[in-house]
Fold these 3 entries.
Entry 1:
Amino acid sequence: MPSRRLLFGRPASSRSPTRKESASKSDTTITTKLVPADRRGSITMDHLLHFAKRKSYSERSVSVGKENNKLSKGATVEIDIKSPPLIFYGTTEFSTGALLSGELHLIVTDPDVKLQKYTMQLLAKVTTKKPVTKDCRNCATKTNEIFTWEFVKEPTDYNKEKHTLPFSYLLKGHLTATTHNKLGSIEYILEATAQTSTGETIKDTRMLDVKRALQPGSERSSPRIFPPTNLKTEVTFPPVVHPIGEFNVAFRLTGITWNTESAHFRWHLRRLTWRIEEVSKIISPACHKHAAKVGGEGKGVQHNDVRTIGDKDIVEGWKTDWTDGGTTELEFTSAIKPTSSPTCDMESPTGFKVTHRLSMELVVGEEVAPAKRPNSWSATGTARVLRTQHALVVTERSGMGISWDEEQPPMYEDVPKSPPGYIKMDECNDIEDPLRRLDLGGRLDLGESREYNVNLPSIAGGRPGSVRFDSPGEGPSGSRPTSSGERPSGMRSASPRDGPST
């Protein structure tokens, strides 16, 4: 057949066909044998028929996402936290916890939605970044359920509006604060789930930032001795420090001088280096499938990590007194580097623990002076390196330091007696007016018609005014009553330009 010869003949060009071209030609030949020419489709129709097979994975993912959005169009769930920041005040033994409260909103956009299930869970998620098996999700993450709210226990219809349900829970004070560390993390999650009668699942998730704050107290003093020498150090620093901010440290070195019959000796401080170190420890448990790697169920692998989150070298600034055994004193400012992402002190029953320490390194050199020339000091070539470590507590700032139980409204038994009630109008006549017993050198009764004039300073700060008293007896200061048109010496009658009379 001519067509058959054209297919298998050598092309007009001199180059030989490649392997890919040969394969495509052989495929075309086989297709020609199996499918008659009159029934073969055009290139355009073949492209349309097999277009779905050439879709990329990203296109299929986008389409699936659109379908899910379309399914979730009927209703949405939103968690709204109303409570203040969740802070545990005090240690795990004495903290009263933190109060969590908020509202759960169900926003229905369809005319009617029927829910088969409507719940919300408070979860604690513990993740280790060095699991027993690297690719095992069960070895890396453990999730525990703390509390569950069941808002719907039977199928319930919801109309087209926003439905709000309040919720609250008291987080116990012994729980561990939210932690993110190089070795692992502890997170608290609120997860709301609504399942419709059509099988659709609607979810919303909120991360809770739970903190712990320890109340500050008096300064701590940590002494250290260094036998066989007489050197002794004393470091004073705050009981708690914070991830952001500076704190003062007072250093004192004693026992730096001693004498013999032929010479005087002393230790001279050359350099002081301080470091704030973060010590982390975690136990990575194994899941049921990989328990044999660690020796059985309930066992794990411990990992430790120590990193420096603040340091500095000091070569000057101290004061030295060489009398009475000698004393060297220094005060400096220490701080944690904010860029180091520090973690506050914590300890979890799962074996996750974070602590901090203040490490100090001192370099002292020995000097000697002859007894006959006590001011001629020279170095002996002997030096010592003194290292000390002091436990440092890193915690969040407490702010006002008011726990939830101190903010709650008073109970009925704590409310004092009510204030006295108001006096009724008909009872006012039984009360004596204090103005009727005014004492200006004598006892006056304002109910009579006797008249007295007394010079008083003007209320408005102007010229002196006058006041008139009516009494059946004598006036103030022994003044006699006045008749009409007659006034006593030293007194004058009220005048309109003097202002109103009192």
Note: Confidence is low (pLDDT under 50) at residues 1-71, 442-452, 458-463, 469-502.
Entry 2:
Amino acid sequence: MSSPVQLSPPAQHLSLHRHDTTSNVFVLTLRKPPENRLNSSLCQEIIRALRHVQVTIGPDAPGALVTTTESQKFFCTGLDLHEPDTNPFANSDGFYPMLAALLDFPFPTVACLTGHTFGGACPFALAHDYRVMNSERGFFSMAIDLGLHFDGIGTLPRLKLQPRVARQMLLEAHKWTGKAAYADGIVDMIAAPSSMQEEALALAEKFAPKAKMGVYGVLRLELVGEAADKMRSISYVRSKTTGRQAKAKI
């Protein structure tokens, strides 16, 4: 039986539920219509949710997190490209530390890509350990077409994907269908819209016990520690620029 978790202060753009008390599987649902654009406020709420789950489960215990949405059209369409116009430190205060927190989270993470996954949602998805994708939607990173860059933007694709696929993602703005994303190893599973949530939860329950010895997070960092270090190095930075704002905004 799923039970809601109340964050303090209350979250405005997401909800958190405890799906299973035995396996300690939590479900974080993005609720920022219409496309779950990642601004500093939402990213900070994700960080708070991660910390709440970590404290609730405690050390040396099984546990896992599923990130999902209620929309079958959009999982997330990336960064709020207009926020830096009024807050030049938006990504340094939100997106970068959120990615660092995900990469350092001591429990397995599963992204349930319920709909289209575009732009900054691509590194967001790649920061999870596993990805289950709606078989009827797409995956598309368009940084090169927007003129957007931040230090370390290529680290997760390089560490997690085949060189050809990482090149297509970063330098070609290639568009993947669900089937093609699975074939290229971007996602671990594709599923029909009617079953994708169940598949993501099953994956989380399968791997939740792997956290009980307390080394899941440190072993993950052996694989993707470079990406975590890159994100930390540009988080909460005020003295220098850490990238280039998008020239084209969608």
Note: The CA atoms of residues 136 and 178 lie 6 Å apart.
Entry 3:
Amino acid sequence: MTSHETISATTAASIKPEAYTQPFLTFISENPTVFHAVDYFSKQLSSRGFTKLSERDLWTDKLEKGGKYFYDRNGSGLIAFTIGSEYKSGNGVAIIASHIDALTAKLKPISAKSTKAGYVQLGVAPYAGGLNQTWIDRDLGIGGRVLLRDDKSGKISTKLVKLDWPIARIPSLAPHFGIPAEGQANKETRMVPIVGLDNTDIGEKKPIQEEGRASVMGGAGTFVSTQPARLVKAIAGEMGIQNYSSIVNWELEIFDTQAAQLGGLDKEFIFAGRIDDKLCSFSAIEALLVSSSELSSATGGGSSDDSSIIRMVGLFDDEEVGSLLRQGAHSNFLPSTIERISEAFTGDKCGANLLSKTYANSFLISADVTHAVHPNYMDVYLEDHSPRLNVGLTVAADSNAHMTTDGVSTAILQRIAEKSSSLLQVFQIRNDSRSGGTVGPMLSAMTGIRAIDAGLPQLSMHSIRATTGSLDPGLGVKLFAGFFDHFEEVDAEFI
């Protein structure tokens, strides 16, 4: 077996966290956009026997007990699940939900900008807190998805593209210039990436953007006529496109090209971009793969083949901007999935009564990264609520209901941690600080599912480059796999 197959044939308690370090480094480095991440997970699931579903089809004749399935929405959100061979409608769903989007900067609909002093620039807009000061002087690539029309059939398909060499850069202003170089720069006027040079205005030659625009750019009125000519050429060259006008549209973003790396004297850190929250997303999917393996047989759990519940992972887009779109957690994405599964095994008998029973028997881990304690800012943390790296999952609590965590859900997860040989930490923000949010409260409120917020700790949240522990991806897999293996028996302990 390959090393990855060896990992999957393991019980939760015996998982070696270090086995997931390199796979995570590879994943985070090679999949910079949300579209690439969903595509990566889809391929992982398919290679391990999961069947891809389509929302456009009826599922009633496609789902079977003991089956493994997944589907995506918009190419930027994904739900995967296994159905136990002993499953009956009304039984619970063990769910891990995370978000797969990350702070970034997206190309504007018309990204071509006028050349300034010989600099070719790119029109971008911040997504959530992207384009903050940490984006300055970084080597930035461009990637995302491109919509292409086939010249013969006229059909439009979507393909991914990644220009992963340093194309763009947002240069800082030297401190010698005084006040303009200080503080957060204006994101519209000061945080505009440079992508090339065009000094043709000095001589008699026409500017590059004007030469042959009608032929090179596909003609007036086409999508590519509104984009920088040299970027269109680069995208087309990378994708092997001859007819530029076949590019109907695209959704592209800029990203830090520096690969994820191990750091520290003993390589105990991971330095990487987009940790929030491709970290918990990675651990959740890997845990489902472990749990779905026929060789997984932890006490009280076992493989999906002898389970009476559904095991599910939901990876949602748009969490960083409110989760309000159809691929976000505040949509019908998760509830409709559970409803369609229930209907497949009950037919006309599936109604509000049965669905309410299903939700009441279910449990949700809202898995979002949380703040690791910072050695230089100990004063902003509560002394007994200061998570460390390479220790374990952190339960996030909040007195004002920004998190789903309560006494019952904490007790359930603690029992699962004990059975999985895992440690739990706890974090709560100080009374004089502002708490963040997660997908947990909205999912729990929509369905009535019991829930807890628990994620892996990291430093430098919302920086273009963050830090987590080298064992943390694997520690997440260990606890999440334990949740899938042990939820049924632990749930039975609570009246």
Note: The first strand starts at residue 51 and ends at 52.
